[in-house]
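EI: anyone free to look at a 237-residue chain?
SC: sure, send it
EI:
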Amino acid sequence: MIAQPKSGYFCFFTKLELSSFESTNKQDWMILESNAEPGYYSKANFPINERHRHDHHLYIVVKKAIPCFQDMVLRKSGEIIREHKLSMNASPGQLTLFSSTYQCIRIRARELDQIYPLIDGLRLAGIEFLKHKKVSSFSSFVQHKKYIHLEMLSEGVFLDTNEPNRYFVLVPHPLDYTQFEKLIEDIKYSCKYNHFDASLAYLNQGDQTFDFIEVYSDHCHKDKLKEFKEHIDRLVK
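SC: here you go
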């Protein structure tokens, strides 16, 4: 019997345009921001996604590498969010900045004043952040880890039950980022399916690793995802 992926901590990998987080508050720490769904509207000039236009994706850059960083951040951020009743998602990650790789805390939040209790709590836990420095927009490879609860929709296609517009399409083997970009560009040009954002993801489950393309779209349905999966299987040998 072929093993099927189950719920667990997924690692996401994508390339984003990052720049300094602009705020009316004085910034002490290096906080970067990206567009929430950077590839969502493909090559066309569609209007912005109204549902998420007020969400912010922020990346707080860690000064020094910390052992067991992912587990520490998952535990401490969860404690802080519950204690202060914060409405946000926080996850451990890493990004490229100034030609180096740094650990970071990825936050998705709407109420920006809520990030400061989280930062203070993580600093008390021993995490040091880079000092603030204004940077212009730059391209960064970003990874983060987040728990996903899967529900199978069809063979090789899964739904994130906590985010109804996020899907995971199983791929036969790992893709490097150049292969991934070419594949997504081909799908957006070749299929009648371009209202989506995508990233690479994988899940370690015991001694097995499952590779996925994460698809985020509120224009999606089960038949379209099946077509998406078939297109991937034709291109990824």
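EI: Residues 69-84 form the longest helix (16 residues).
SC: 👍
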